[in-house]
Amino acid sequence: METKKLTVGVLLSNSSILPMAKQFSTGLKNGLKELSQEVELEIVPEFIGQGSRDLAEAAITKLVSFDDADVITGIVSNKVGTDLSEKIANVKRPFIINNIGEHLPEPGKFNDYMFLNSIHTWQQLWSVGQWGVKQFGKKGMYVSGLYDCGYSFQSMLSAGMESAAGEVTMPFVIAPTPNPKETGDIAAVFEHIQHYKPDFILATFCGKEATMFLTQYVEQGLHKTIPLLGLPFLLEAFTTPEPIEVYTTLSINRELKPEQLDEVSNAMANPFSQFGFETGLLIAQAVKDQGGKSLQKAIAEAAIETARGCVEITPESNASQSRVYLVKNTFTGIKSDISRELISELETIDIHHEDVQRISSQASSFWMNPYLGI
Known about the structure:
Layout: E1 5-12, H1 20-32, E2 40-47, H2 53-65, E3 71-75, H3 78-83, H4 85-91, E4 95-99, E5 114-118, H5 121-136, E6 140-144, H6 153-164, E7 172-174, H7 189-196, E8 200-203, H8 207-219, E9 228-230, E10 244-252, H9 261-267, H10 271-288, H11 295-301, E11 304-306, E12 309-311, H12 315-318, E13 323-331, E14 338-346, H13 354-360
Parallel strand pairs: 1-2, 1-3, 3-4, 4-5, 6-7, 6-8, 8-9, 9-10
Antiparallel strand pairs: 10-13, 11-12, 13-14
Helix pairs in contact: 1-10, 5-6, 10-11
């Protein structure tokens, strides 16, 4: 190990939904803990608002030119990450991007200094869309809040559904949001649900809007007639007298056994804590194994084992490691009391699949912030 001092620059996005910046920072420090006993370690946080390109670029400039950061990490979307590709190539610092995979990654736009740690939610949406059609029928409905729909969710759900059968339909409804500073009009989506009577629903609400949606879903009795699918962020606390069943995805990099479900689900309940911890471990391993190699090369070769399985962060190999599982959550509204059942491992795709190539070539939303960073 040649490195005697290590400066880690950290890009931290704000969130009104969950303390993602604090969670990531805490996880990163835990991952780097052992290394701090062997080298002089400095962690420099830079807050980048909702994760725009301009704020991220300015933070990187400061981290490189003033703080002389050896490596930069943090929470940014794939869109902002790829927009900063030229910048990263010029400053020649390893840049480890962390996000839940709201946008499709484009490895061709990455360079040798760019790395990605993600659970590839775009991939999970394809898988659950295919499963929903096979399990429940050809008419799936996408229901979302304004700030949850500006990503690859809808297009990947539709592609997954189309992979399962011909002549599928996917009506969608977005909760009206007259005031951007307030929650959407969640009640308005239910008249559309009643009108279309879908075979299943995929909902991507989170935070307060998820609470409002789940409450009304039960109050209107839809939990008895229409299966509900969602991302884990849909499982917000709510208050009604009846439980609800929600099918969610879980993405890890290894085989999952039923008896491991609660442990792994709890580990992934705060994905940004997990990302920070994994990134810290990867940096620590790279420094320890560096030898005469550059830090960039050592990070590219690093691999660690966590609750998620083997984690490597080169963009090309990343999504191909993922295994997507389906979990049935019986939920009473108390977040600490969710009964989980492992249903199956789902078919999934990687970045080389024709659906990904086709959707990548189409116009897409310009939401720059990482998902949940609003």
